Amino acid sequence: MLDTLYVVILIGTGLILLAAFSSLLAFRFGAPILLVFLSIGLVAGVDGFGLDFDNPPLAYFIGSLALAIILFDSGFGTSLQSFRHAAAPALTLATVGVLLTTALFAAAAVLLLDLSWLQGALLGSIVGSTDAAAVFFLLRIGGINIRERVRATLEIESGSNDPMAIFLAIALVELLRSGSGFEAMDWNFLIQFAKQLGIGGVLGLVGGWMILQLVNRLSLERGLTPIFTIALSLLVFSVTGALGGSGFLAVYVAGLLTGNSHIRSATSIRRFQEGMSWLAQIVMFLVLGLLATPSQFAAIALPAVGLAFFLIFIARPLAIWFCLLPFRFSRNETAFISWVGLRGAVSILLAILPIIGGIDSERVFFNTAFIIVLVSLLMQGWTIGFMARRLGLIVPPRIGPVEKLELELPGTAHHELLSYRVVAGSPVARGQRLPRWARPSLVVRDGKSMRLQYAGRLQENDYVYLFISSRYPRLLDRLFASPVPFEPDDAEFFGEFTVEPGRPARLLAESYGIDLGNVTPETTVAELMVERLGGHAEYGDRVAVGSVELIVRDTDDAGEIAEVGLSLTPDTKPTLPLFHNFRDIVSVLRQTPKRRRKVEASKAKEPPSLLLTPPVAESHRDGDGDGKPM
Prior knowledge:
The protein is of the alpha+beta class. The chain folds into four domains: about 1-390, Up-down Bundle (Na+/H+ antiporter like fold), CATH 1.20.1530.20; about 405-480, Alpha-Beta Plaits (2-Layer Sandwich); about 490-565, Uridine Diphospho-n-acetylenolpyruvylglucosamine Reductase, domain 3 (2-Layer Sandwich); about 590-620, no CATH class. The chain has helices at about 1-30, 35-45, 55-75, 80-115, 115-125, 130-140, 150-160, 160-180, 185-215, 225-240, 245-260, 265-290, 300-325, 330-340, 345-355, 365-380, 385-390, 450-455, 475-480, 490-495, 505-510, 525-530, 580-605, and strands at about 405, 415-420, 440-445, 450, 465-470, 495-500, 540-545, 550-555, 560-565. A five-stranded antiparallel β-sheet has the order 1-2-5-3-4. A four-stranded antiparallel β-sheet has the order 6-9-8-7. Strand 8 (about 550-555) and strand 9 form a beta hairpin. The protein is globular and about 70 Å long.
């Protein structure tokens, strides 16, 4: 017995260490790290090194627990401001989007796998939601800096669409087990779904408030606080599930509330949760990889790959386009959101439900879902950075990397003790003075400590300790940041000229001969941009106005436009002819009659003889007939 225990521990730790080591290679070669974890489980399994793990209920339990940890950390790391700006489109994708994807995919599954409509709907619900773990890890660790609204929409969608998919999968498994059909899905079906979402949301808020109160009021040892926090989050998850709510939604909401409030030992909690999320990610994908039997994939590989392509190129794009019609995303942004529809551990977890329910003895659902996940990670996971650059969604970083350490001291609920290392090329290294409110306490140079007034000008590799209010770290980050690859006045991205955001937009129209449409004379440039952007502007946003383009160069702490760039050569990134939103459609419909009238008017004025003459050279546009340019 003891020998078996040691062998299990040895194999488990060996696989975890191998996965952690493989992450170095994945980062080096740009491979999706989650695919690496999954592949290690496959290689170690029954068709590889021979580890025979065939316990679907245990795999589902481990995967659900790991996903709860990841979702709590995901909510903890999502800013409330980002959530407000992206909640409406993200929640639409998480509900209506999952339903549409499921319905479209079900039709393809019926044709390619010869399933019944109920079975096709079940398979559609299994792969209908994006994977929170895959999306969060690839966006936050993938090294790409995309526009905040797009990033927040993807993260919130992936963190909140699991309840819909899980509810659909469980309900359809029960219908198949009972032999019922779609006719059994009455109003009680919607009531149960609303109950899950309602209980999950309410208990998530209550649970987040409870975590805050307990952590802030109990005098726990600093090392116990992160453990206590993660244990409370799992308590929220389990209690919500036991009461008939969505535990995954509850734990995400609890993390969102907790992470956006003043909580004691926040730095320690974040570091601990980051490590726990990595461990949960590794364990979950290893276990799911061990559960699979690759030798069974051949029998279903072709239709499964066909379904994966249908999901990636037809089902999700159509669902995303329909859901985002009212939200004024650009066509390229909608295309990118469609592309980052990564399937991962959630789909494989849900594919275990038919096995547990006794309706997938041949593992058709499980193997199909597994192949779809592999194709998704290979095709989409490997190309996220390429697609973001190709669609013009990469935004130059506002500041460069910062070497900073946050230190916690007793009684510092509203203040932080920060340690910065002065890097070459940063503003402070170039002589920029520190503001008075920074209150530098100590400078460490070459191993010797001294006060700032005796240190003189800060030098490269100095360590500066500052005790400041929690409102100011972002301002200090700019002073200690490394130089960025793109300077803020880079004409290629931010435009050749600077425009005062508070100036009237009519002056811009008069200067460049632009028709602004129904815009009042008092409308400022900033107000015009915010209106065209759908009510909220972010760093790097671009607005085409006639023949010029306005770019948000910077925003203040309140999210207001602080600096605007103007480009006379608008962005040349290709705009897809698909994914028009309502504004685009209305604009096209309005312009069509005008263009028709212009064409008819030009034909009416054009002499018949001109139809037989050769084309007029571009150089004759000045109208003087000498063939020379103006």
